[in-house]
Design brief:
mainly alpha; 1 helix; 81% helix
Length: 37
Amino acid sequence: MTKIDYMELIQDLQEEVRNLEERLKKHENNIDHPHEA
């Protein structure tokens, strides 16, 4: 893999991490407020 390939891979992973963090926040909110789920 070239350096550019790695940079693109890192960008994809960072985006995936953001998506997972969003899902985790929503999940934590549901745990904090189960009646709202």
